[in-house]
Design brief:
143 residues, elongated, 5 helices, Swp1, mainly alpha
Amino acid sequence: LFEYKKNVSVAFNFHPWMENAIFSYADSAAIHLHIYLQLPYSFSSFLKNLFQWLRVGINFGNMPVSPWVIAFHAGLTGIFGLYFVFWLRLNMFETLKYLSGIGAFTFIAGNRLLRAIVTFWSVDKAERAFALKLNPHGKIRRR
């Protein structure tokens, strides 16, 4: 059924330009003719991001008024600042020492913030359904 041939030879046929090609891996001369196009005037990235977040639907009205909101965001800012200082001058062990304190503070503040959010949104279902009928976009305002 199957024939097996022992003496098989394989031949590769290259293009004629490759047979006599000399490959050089030396540095080429620099090209100084490239000019980057000037970008048209654009608004700052802060304004673009602000309007994009408004378009997406960021809503600060749904955030509870609590000191834990500020504490949690201050902790996150502290962590990012610590990463920046680590990049500049700290070593890993010094960074971990500082991160343990800032991280514990941020963890506790985040836990309290989540509790405040649950308390903020603990509205019974009938009141929520009534509020959604009045406001179909789903933004419930506290009294």
